[in-house]
Amino acid sequence: MKKMPELATRIIVGLIAFGIFLFCIFTHQVGFLVFFGFTLIVGLMEFYNLIDMGGFKPQRLTGYILGITMFLGNGLMTFYDYPQKFLLFPLLCLFLILPIELYRKREHPFTNIAHGLLGIIYVAIPVTLLINIVHPNDEIGYNPLFFVGWLMLILSSDSGAYLAGTAFGKHKLFERISPKKSWEGAIGGLLMSVAFAVGFSYFLDFLTVWEWIGLSVISVVAGIYGDLVESLLKRNVGAKDSGTLLPGHGGVLDRLDSIVLATPFAFVYLKIFL
């Protein structure tokens, strides 16, 4: 009896979040920056909460400042052609993490520094690179339709994996980390994503059909590992979800797990082919 209210909550929250997301990114570049700037801060907060559960104390404030200045600096450069000097401040923040630890008088300073930097690598850099997915180059410009299309490659693979895994799943993909995932599900998810990629190639033709398929494959494979990595981190500290911001869905990182690792690979791929 409890499953139906939970399912209804999950659907309603998902639709509201998706509606806000579409409104923000299709309205203006500023909407994109606001939406993902908020996502970045909450994602870092959830990540550092997980670290706290493991008994360590990363530099939260330094991480927040570094992450948001890196994100905004890249946004100003990419969207508005500001000079590269706007990335100098986050560069300083990166190195200030080291002397700041001298004054915190916390146990495990080495590990605290490492965990603080890991939050930047795992959360801030991927979210920052999303700017270069929605604005692949100056010729294409700000293209939210392409961005949504790329996200659909990843999201459709989740649906395909669930359907194929439920119907045919027998061989475990990575049982130690995620017992429910199967090779059959992964293949089914990849095939569904490729089908979406072929369809998108007819509407967004600045990538050929084969380049769209390549983007699909690299994003889905990286996304699968992103999902497994987040499961590994949560399992390490005994957490079921990364947060509680989205009822029925968990936290922001629970929704970004596949995208976090897919983003840098997609970024490099697009830099090569565009």
Please describe what this structure looks like.
This protein has 274 residues and is an all-alpha fold. The chain contains nine helices and two strands, in the order H-H-H-H-H-H-E-E-H-H-H. It has a two-stranded antiparallel sheet with strand order 1-2. Helix 2 (29-53) runs antiparallel to helix 5 (109-134) and helix 8 (209-237) runs antiparallel to helix 9 (252-273). It is globular. It starts with a helix and ends with a helix.
Task: Describe how the helices and strands are arranged.
Layout: H1 3-27, H2 29-53, H3 60-80, H4 88-100, H5 109-134, H6 144-168, E1 172-174, E2 178-182, H7 183-200, H8 209-237, H9 252-273
Antiparallel strand pairs: 1-2
Helix pairs in contact: 1-2, 2-3, 2-5, 3-4, 3-5, 5-9, 6-7, 6-8, 7-8, 8-9
